[in-house]
């Protein structure tokens, strides 16, 4: 595929063998742990390219090679590494770039599970952690220590969708010879390509929009050339290989990713605009919404937005939030997001230590592929129940 082809064309054709006649539209699914060879010479030759997908299942299969090639292409990466989940990708990046005695900088708005991994595992490994205000931009330089090795980012941040000045942070990292990594799950490679701004490794929880149907756990890390082998070896050493069936679902999801995201984005913007004018909604936290926090950075660096957002409420009486969320018809209570269905959950920014949340309760919603007018009616009824309670 040429880089000159449009993204929809590339998503349709990447990771498929289109040569010859009578080939299947979808590549075959390789369910394999073991690949056999007819001679020792052939086995030795296979070791020269151990991650090509034809040596041992934990190193990958032709199915994972197809998925990784496709993700690398749309991400502008040297290569990509599939893994068992988004969290496996996060841990692979930490383990690839950090050793005992090193120091890492992590935004205070980071995904709760990433914080848990840092506190529960990195500290036990003797790695120092400093959480920083996601809005700090180039000011992160003041937090760099002699033993700092990695600046981790997530933009927008979980729960309150804080936008980070990625180019400014990357410039600081490059000045000091530090690695950078970024969780890009919200935007996907279609709407933000951090590698083109100098980020070393970009994590996608493919469980979300790439799979797109809430039926698989999958992660992938897109890397520049220097980061690729360390990340690949970390995934290999953890045994965090992605299952073949899950990778196949990721390939399937890539085919419709652009179409689905266009619908998620259009519906989400309409919901955000509606929420902005509702009684009791203090603010809508959705970077694509004009006037929302971080909108100018989003407009500068991103080419689109997904369907995940939050909104802030005033202090609530006991039982008010329960009355709202438990009576929803279309927004169901459930973790994750990025599938075809709409979801709702309380967010908990009050757990932050540096960028202290001083606002009211926050509700996170994922705008699915349902009719947007039905979703707005559901939210309207929920807000009325909340006000009544």
From TrEMBL:
It catalyses: L,L-cystathionine + H2O = L-homocysteine + pyruvate + NH4(+). It comes from the Bacteria. It is an enzyme of class 4 (lyase). InterPro entries: Cys/Met-Metab_PyrdxlP-dep_enz (IPR000277), Cys_b_lyase_bac (IPR006233), PyrdxlP-dep_Trfase (IPR015424), PyrdxlP-dep_Trfase_major (IPR015421), PyrdxlP-dep_Trfase_small (IPR015422). Its EC number is 4.4.1.13. One of its GO terms (molecular function) is cysteine-S-conjugate beta-lyase activity. The keyword Lyase applies. Coiled coil: none annotated. NCBIfam families: cysta_beta_ly_B (TIGR01324). Belongs to the trans-sulfuration enzymes family. This is Cystathionine beta-lyase. It comes from Ruixingdingia sedimenti. The lineage of its organism: Bacteria, Pseudomonadati, Pseudomonadota, Alphaproteobacteria, Rhodobacterales. The gene is metC.
